[in-house]
């Protein structure tokens, strides 16, 4: 079976334990491990019944469901026969209960402009925008592609789609025109929503220009709605492009939420897998909505007086689940920040925590490592006493970063929830419950109620305590992906074929003697760069699309800030190695995929090391990329195949 290798091997020796502060537990929703265990056991005894009770209590049903779970492996249907609406659960429900004046979003733009939206105002905007979509011909089941900066309008666009049963596909606003076009074509998107431009670290990103380029290749997109965020002079194509504010000015506020089948597709979100083509992960309405609401309430122990800030962009699943659908279903007050953590200064996040008196703060380990590097003084300058709970997501957090977060940001008062989950799982699967679970730095601790993980070997048998193996989930859960958009075969093959009957997460993990889970990295060729997934093959395909690249291999190497950095090995045709070519290749990958995929090292070689059967020896390249050798002179042509030969002689 796959060896449990990964960057977290060192945490094996971690043995510090931090019990929840007594004061925190006293007020928490789930106050002790006994209480957690009772709930977990109850759920495990009959997961479908457990979730059904919860679904009845937590969601608004236009028509009640008849069956909790219809499981035809690997296809799940939750809450069959019921009709509900995620936008209703996020908005109308609170307004109907007299909570319309509560603040939904506290938004801060990068240049320092700010807006506050109550639930009632947000509902009004969502209704109007839903009517705008309808006026442009969007119907139930149509795909709406969203490529926007993190403004309230991004959330409004998502919720408006949900309201009328359209399917949103949000594409992070750092992706390239090529990447947008690929996703639009795969999804058969009908409408594009974007902004003239966005702010990033003081620069203006020309979003509409990128979209223009993408739309030239997006065969199915008919119309484009443009938010005026920056007031940039842009090209507006007559008959295709429309200004957001002009359409909104004419739209009616009356747009009742449509009763939608529980299994109506709510969104697709593209993520990298182990092949070159990103997959559109499909999530549906009722199960997802319930799962993100409950996990939000359990993990973040949300209370009415809290101010919740998840720093993720809505271009990622974390933004879908814990900026929009989870917190809003729970009636939470959510901070949205448009910009970079170090603009205009490295204390920007702490300034925002102080300004909005944030009580719950959820971010990624890569950001924490950057804060550590920038120095404690930025956090120390600000009053962080409002914080009561901290969270992380996206990759394992190394114990040093955990301790820093605990000491410098949490001031040793705040529990830390290290949440393990994936785009595919919809919501958090494993995490401490902050009032109950003693935490161990580097471990995502235990599964949430209704989640049944198993670590197995390649035969599907459970491995012993302390043995690494493949992380699987043994029973369907409401937030699970329902498939890959337009590709049932790939869905079956990726997640359900290697270990029959169980969902294969793609991570290695081990369990310790206390039943705590430790994630040990991916089992496939997926890199985790700054908490974002990238497939090596995607980067390689981008490289070989350059006329001077004959062959390419991409591997990850450890990086202090990003977790993993991208190193590529390239053989050339019709060109000699040069610094200019190196920069050109970096730029080329950036144009093909986006800035997040751009290689940190480019090495030219006259041959790639291969096995006898022709497979690139990635492990060897990984060792070379991670080695102490400097990569300063990137123009030298080395022959790594010699190394391969030497190694195979050794073996
Ligand atoms: O490898 C795991 C890692 O991120 C992968 C999922 O990536 P993505 O779908 O982009 O979703 C990220 C946000 C939910 C997982 O397969 N990962 C995520 N959270 C953790 C983690 N690894 C260790 N610990 C975590 N808390």
CATH class bucket of the domain at 546-650: Alpha Beta
What about the largest sheet? 8 strands, mixed
Looking at this structure, what is the CATH superfamily of the domain at 546-650?
Answer: ANL, C-terminal domain
**Named CATH architecture of the domain at 546-650:** 2-Layer Sandwich
**Helicity range of the residues?**
25-40%
**Mean pLDDT rating:** 93
Secondary structure class reads: alpha/beta
Backbone shape: globular
Bound molecule kinds, no repeats: adenosine-5'-monophosphate-propyl ester
Number of strands: 31
Low-confidence regions: 1-12
The CATH topology annotation of the domain at 546-650 reads as: GMP Synthetase, Chain A, domain 3
Overall radius of gyration:
24 Å
Strands in their spatial order, largest beta sheet: 12-11-8-6-7-14-15-23
Structural account:
- The protein is an alpha/beta fold.
- It has a domain at 546-650: GMP Synthetase, Chain A, domain 3 (2-Layer Sandwich).
- 33% of the residues lie in helices and 24% in strands.
- The protein has an eight-stranded mixed β-sheet, with helices on both faces. A seven-stranded mixed β-sheet has the order 5-4-17-16-18-19-20, with helices on both faces. Strands 21-22-24-25 form a four-stranded antiparallel β-sheet.
- The protein is globular.
- The two termini are 20 Å apart.
- It binds adenosine-5'-monophosphate-propyl ester.
- Adenosine-5'-monophosphate-propyl ester (PRX) is lined by residues 271, 317-318, 393-396, 418-423, 444, 505-507, 519, 522, 528, 532-533.
